[in-house]
């Protein structure tokens, strides 16, 4: 047997479907950016470290090292791919021999218990100089796990084993595959040669997910986006290195699936951006490490990081954090002077909660909340005079930023829009705030309370209900941390919300270590 040089190979492996930051001290510019309002002592205290966190402990962000360059996998025409579980012709017994002009494969397939694996489809692909694959022969294991594929032209081959024991998650494995070389090895067949290719099936799982980007209105363009699955492959000098085991383009909606990934505890999903320069996104983006379990589907999403320019004197991680704060609160990106000012504050030791409070208490953010409330509650744009009145009331302390929605729900305009009766008013609140219908008895009960206490009082009961607060807290987890809350964390923050309000929660979330680390996955100078 001669083993050919390693040729990267895959049958549609992926298909569409910091504890302390090393910082550089810098001087702040003479004045804060124009939007910034100084956080009041009360608001700063409202989000101090005494609050329950409910946040996931995170490790310092260490960029993975890629030790295997991107490669082109074999291209197998879809009409030549035998469907998993299909019936294929059994070839001659294993002891049959190829004639002098052709070659053959034969062997025994077992499971991890070293028992014969019956009914495993075996496919022999020849590979041309352009790395295109063609099915030259197939076979199926018998009750003893034996198979043979005869009459193969001489050439270079890969052999695939298709185990459909689990019809939901069929496994595709390649002869010679290892943990870090899951594409298998190429085998050169000579005339008259019978190559013995025994194989033991190993546990595999599926990886699925979506590639997204913070500033995108839709999923990234598949034409400029490639997904890579990397597995930990430490070296003596770099324990954080990864080797690619699969790759492919995502679908139009950003979805991707990789089948038959070896079960292991340390994978990372990478994204390669190949768009025009100057880069819109970082050339390489990557997600957090994850495990793949056998016969299971692991969901792991990855963010294509927006490429941001470096700013003199500002640590890249701090730059990422400032960009995240601007985008999440103000729906825009900062200027270099904005990054210099806020980054300087952070690097000089400003309390993260005070920095977040600066955004929460800014005129720009409050106006965004006012405009959004008008659209959400009243279904129209705000008029200039009205938004300024609301802003002045917030700045004077007459109301908080969080009061804008409840005030509009209690307004005469909203009441008239929704039937002009107490019963229809409370029914609308069920739909708008609880996203469900109530019973006739529910509507009558709350309509009576409207008569007794007024609309604003009733709105407050809805707004502070566990059901509605839980929804708002869950939305903050998604927006700021990119995940769903655990049950304990959710209830913890629901309890805190009653005392510090939604703005206090936003400040606490965005001043957390978890938020800081995630910002580096979303915005990157690399």
General description of the model:
It contains 14 helices and 23 strands. Helix 5 (363-378) packs across helix 6. Strands 1, 5, 6, 8, 9 and 10 form a 6-stranded antiparallel β-sheet that branches. Strands 3, 14, 15, 17, 18 and 19 form a 6-stranded mixed β-sheet that branches. Strands 2, 13, 16, 20 and 21 form a 5-stranded mixed β-sheet that branches. Strand 5 and strand 6 (133-140) form a beta hairpin. It has helices spanning 41-46, 316-330, 336-347, 352-360, 363-378, 384-396, 403-409, 412-417, 422-434, 440-453, 455-463, 466-481, 487-510, 513-522; strands spanning 2-3, 14-15, 65-66, 103-110, 121-127, 133-140, 146-152, 155-163, 171-174, 187-189, 194-196, 199-200, 204-212, 225-232, 241-248, 255-262, 264-273, 284-286, 290-292, 297-299, 302-303, 306-307, 523-524. By secondary structure, it is α/β, with parallel strands linked by helices.
Alpha-carbon distance between the two ends: 45 Å
Tell me the strand percentage band: 15-25%
Largest β-sheet summary: 6 strands, antiparallel
- Class by alpha and beta content: alpha/beta
Strand segment tally: 23
Low-confidence stretches: 1-13, 17-32, 34-53, 56-60, 69-97
Radius of gyration: 30 Å
- What helical percentage do the residues reach? 25-40%
Count the DSSP helices.
14
Apparent shape: elongated
